[in-house]
Amino acid sequence: MKDVCFYFQVHQPFRLRRFRFFDIGKGVGYFDDSANRSIMNKVAEKCYLPANSLLLKLIKRYDGELKVAFSISGTALEQFEQYSPRVLDSFRELVETGCVELLSETYYHTLSSIVGTADFEHQVGKHQKKITALFGVTPAVFRNTEFLYSDRIGARVGAMGFRTILTEGAEKVLGTRSPNVLYAHPNDPSLTLLLRNYRRSDDIAFRFSNKGWEEWPLTVEKYVAWLNRTPQTDEVINLFMDYETFGEHQWASTGIFDFLGMLPDAILKTNQLRFAAPSEVATRRTPIGALSVPSNLSWADTERDLSAWLGNGMQDDAFDKVYALSKKVNLLNDEAIRSVWGKLQSSDHFYYMCVKQHSDGEVHRYFNHFGSPFEAYITYMNVLTDFEARVDRALNEQRQRMPMPEVTPPGSKGSTSQASDPTLYLE
Q1: Is residue 105 annotated as a catalytic residue, yes or no?
Q2: How far apart are CA 257 and CA 223, in angstroms?
Q3: Which domains does the chain have, with CATH numbers?
Q4: 31 and 339 in contact (C-beta within 8 Å)?
Q5: Which listed residue (105, 146, 168, 248) is catalytic?
Q6: Which of these, 154, 183, 216, 361, could form a disulfide with 291 (CB 3.0-4.6 Å)?
């Protein structure tokens, strides 16, 4: 029996409003509440609510045989709470079935894992607490933002206590090896890697409605036959994709919900395939060997690297500036400022600044609510300029509130010319 592991990413960023240079210092809000509410409600009606309703019916119909996994970013959860509580309730219903596994990730869907600060660990911990508070479960499996992974990131994740991590099954790290087996971290054999079968995943996520695709239309029978024809040595087929595939990226009129509704029955009838959540796969299977990933890997764009978010001058400048604020933000005991800083780190902001062309460029433009990458960059940098000034004001106010040490009169034993400088006590 081969395991079929379905995992869905759920994420919505807090999108920025058009923040002009002349808005700096005027107390103007950064986030486009109207757009965020509108987009959330649209995606809820097109994807989250109908897809969750369908999954709940299927889970009940197959009496525990259908298993799926989700990771839901903290920013998406906050927007569920603010704009669409029905969506949050529908996810709770799914989790309560015991057939839905929730995964851990960075709270703000950030690239913090590649930065040498403790913010990555802080965000993962914050996400764990949020999931536990909302759903009453604690995730045991980790999925980094956009499947970003390397040996170094794996070591950081393993040090936090996770034993399983999901990432991309790209040929540039696998060579001729199969993604349909488990691997282990080269320096930590107890850390298991589950790799996405990107061909079979993208058949649904990207190609399903493409009438120019030679395999269109994709029927359930054809798809399950492909899954069934994998080599006997394969143990698990990891089908990882955005949840918004269902109803948002692939509209209901394409037949995507009908496809999803018929797929479990077709898979279970093979008697060769069964559904399994990531933690079940990791418990049931044994890694066949180590897989080294020396440079950063992701599931985005043709390159499967960081170039969707970093690489051009605008992206690098914005990224460097927002993370340069780390020391200042961490000096403050201000959760509101830390929350804004976290939302400004969301990978989406850098994604909008991408200037790639051809098919990758089309995908970037589809998600970009700005008119161009340059507009996204200018807006972001204006916001950061205003935000840094806000942080500096908060630091000055904090300095003024700090109790001053008693100053020994000049010439007295233990006197120091530095004692009256309050800035020294912030270092």
Answers
A1: no
A2: 15
A3: 2-284 (3.20.110.20), 313-401 (no CATH)
A4: no
A5: 146
A6: 183
With contact defined as beta carbons under 8 Å apart, do 322 and 353 qualify?
Answer: no
The number of residues in the chain equals 427
Amino acid letter, 74: G
Question: What are the tens digits of pLDDT across the range 160-204?
Answer: 999 999 999 999 999 999 999 999 999 999 999 999 999 999 999
Cis peptide upstream of residue 217 (ω within 30 degrees of 0) = yes
> Which two three-digit tokens encode residue 304?
């499967």
Distances (CA, A) of 97 to 58, 93, 122: 11, 7, 30
The dihedrals phi and psi of 192, each to the nearest 5 degrees, come to -90, 140
User: Are 307 and 160 within 8 A, CB to CB?
Assistant: no
Angular region, 353: left φ>0, alpha ψ -120 to 50, beta rest: alpha
Query: Has residue 364 got a pLDDT over 90?
Result: no
Tokens of 402: 């700090």
181 in Cβ contact with 236 (< 8 Å): yes
Report how far residue 159's alpha carbon sits from residue 65's, in angstroms, rounded to the nearest whole number: 33
* Whether the model pTM is above 0.85: yes
pLDDT value of residue 139: 97
Nearest alpha carbon to residue 155 among 127, 123, 125, 187: 187
- What's the mean pLDDT when you consider all of the chain? 92
- Residues with Cβ within 8 Å of 261's Cβ and at least 6 positions away in sequence, in order, are 54, 58
pLDDT in the model for residue 427: 23
Q: What's the start-to-end Cα distance of the chain, in Å? A: 59
What gap in Å lies between CA 63 and CA 59, rounded to an integer?
A: 6
The two tokens of residue 229 are: 């024809």
Residue 361 has pLDDT above 70, yes or no: no
Cα–Cα dist 351/398, whole Å: 35
Q: What are phi and psi of 310, to 5 degrees?
A: -135, 155
Token pair 């080294």 in the structure block, residue: 292
Residues 106-165 pLDDT 10s: 999 999 999 988 999 999 999 999 999 999 999 999 999 999 999 999 999 999 999 999
Residue 320 CA to residue 25 CA, distance in Å, equals 22
Q: What per-residue confidence (pLDDT) applies to 417?
A: 36
Answer for the pair 353, 315: CB distance below 8 angstroms, yes or no.
yes
- Residue 423 structure tokens: 């800035």
d(CA 355, CA 374): 9
Tell me the per-residue pLDDT of 273-329, one tens digit each, with 9 for 90 and over: 999 999 999 999 999 999 999 999 999 988 999 999 999 999 999 999 999 999 999
